[in-house]
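User: Predict structure, ligand 1,3-dihydroxyacetonephosphate.
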Amino acid sequence: PAEDEARVDEIKRLLEANNAVLVAHYYTDDAIQQLAEETGGCVADSLEMARFGARHEAETLVVAGVRFMGETAKILSPEKRVLMPTLEATCSLDLGCPADEFSAFCDAHPDRTVVVYANTSAAVKARADWVVTSSIAVEVIEHLQARGEKILWAPDKHLGGYIQKQTGADMLLWDGACIVHEEFKAKGVEDLKSLYPEAAVLVHPESPAPVVELADVAGSTSQLIKAAKELPNDKLIVATDRGIFFKMQQAVPGKTLFEAPTAGNGATCKSCAHCPWMAMNALDNLAGALRHGSGEIFVDAELRRAALKPLERMLNFQR
Ligand code: 13P
Ligand code: SF4
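Assistant: Predicted complex:
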């Protein structure tokens, strides 16, 4: 619509005027992803977003995603102004892991190396030895296991369980989950697979174990897009937030993509596989943030120093 076009033009002008760059996650609106692409920003998974923001020379990073992504950008680049379309966009994993309870859990298990998923608050990261995202989690835990370390993992029990299975590491798991991925049902994926036996199944490991077990490839959002390109299959069943279809379909224009069902009867739930917090990012509030400097992320200096250590470990990790 003409309104959106005017908004897009305004955002482009404001990005330039503010020496700002747009960093967007694959789960945000198509229009935001397209804008990030057209303006020299990036559309990426959470690890690549962090790397891109830290390396970019812009004075202002506009992070379209959820709160932990903006916080991570600020922790890595305290000298930059970090804006988000809305500060309300949180994540069920972050909400399900309050810093004080988590800290008590760590205190009760002092013999364990604390590894937290990036989907956590700065305060939880500050208590960790390592931060990981789903694209690097298995490698980091393998590395720690090889050093004989026992792990305390938080907050996603499904991702934790998946890593445990892959690596055989001794992991104590926090009981958290992603409300979006938890809705995928193995029965639904099996039913769809019986309709299209030639289809490959791509699954984000925040999904429950029975769904991950059906996967031809399990991985982070960018790993799933890569797999869509590399697999020979013309049909793909995809168990992750439907926001990913924008870039995935661009990457494989000739292939047919199916949303993995979120109901056991094989029906696709039209409103389920989309993160309600990612959906809060829109052209309007994005323009508003740039216009008024609203939605700015601040991280307490001491907290920042503590959270930076485990984040830098992740960014510097090389096998
Ligand atoms: P990725 O690191 O795979 O982009 O995952 C982030 C996320 O929030 C998935 O729900
Ligand atoms: Fe958090 Fe799940 Fe939303 Fe990702 S999709 S931001 S893990 S609630």
